[in-house]
Amino acid sequence: MTSEPTLISSVRRALRLLETVGAQERPVSAKQLARQTGLRLPTTYHLLRTLVHEGYLRKLDDGYVLGDSVDLLGHPPRNQLLLNRIRPILTALRDELGAAAYVSIFDDGEIRILDIVDSASAPRVDLWVGCTEAGHATALGKCVLRELPDHQLRDYLARHPLVDLTPRTATKPQELRRRLAAGPIMLDREEYSLGTACAAVPIYDGARPGSLSVSVPVGKLDRLERGGQRLLAASEQINRAMSLTI
């Protein structure tokens, strides 16, 4: 008769936590991890502290992501590696400008938000229409569209109607193209949501274009205009961080 192997329960629990964090595209909280793994919350916190200490997880403001030590085990999802490197840049930008910060990327023909860093004093925009449908009306979306080769832009516009979200939204392709010609900082003056202003600059993940953007109430638009150089400097930091993430 073959005897059952001796298993160490704490190791198994830690591995379940790593697997669960690794399956997420965004940071996941301790409470969410406890629910998803069926562990008691105190046990979850104890294991998470150990995994963070050993470098297998990293604790961000809104949850946990895989840490650098996971590189020794294989290849974690690229978006998590990017998040691990760019989150401190976004946090610093939010704190300096007093504005919510966003990173988006053009992925498989769609504009997708990779991360958002906000706070009680710098809340995010209510994304009542997703960026996949409203790229023409947001600073972050227009910034990505401006970077696309013409054939990709034409393909995107053929698949995405220019929906009228506010009286300021561009609903005709020629008007959108005129707005895309602006630069180097792309602005959204209440095109997506009345009362909200956004500014965005391009970033690149290899060949994939993306954007770094910030949002404020429209009455504070001058804050974004004054912070333009800071936004450009942060985009250069993100480009360097992305180039290091293989």
UniProtKB/TrEMBL annotation:
The keyword Transcription regulation applies. Coiled coil: none annotated. GO terms for molecular function: DNA binding; DNA-binding transcription factor activity. The keyword DNA-binding applies. Transmembrane segments: none annotated. Residues 69-246 form the IclR-ED domain. Residues 8-68 form the HTH iclR-type domain. This is Glycerol operon regulatory protein.
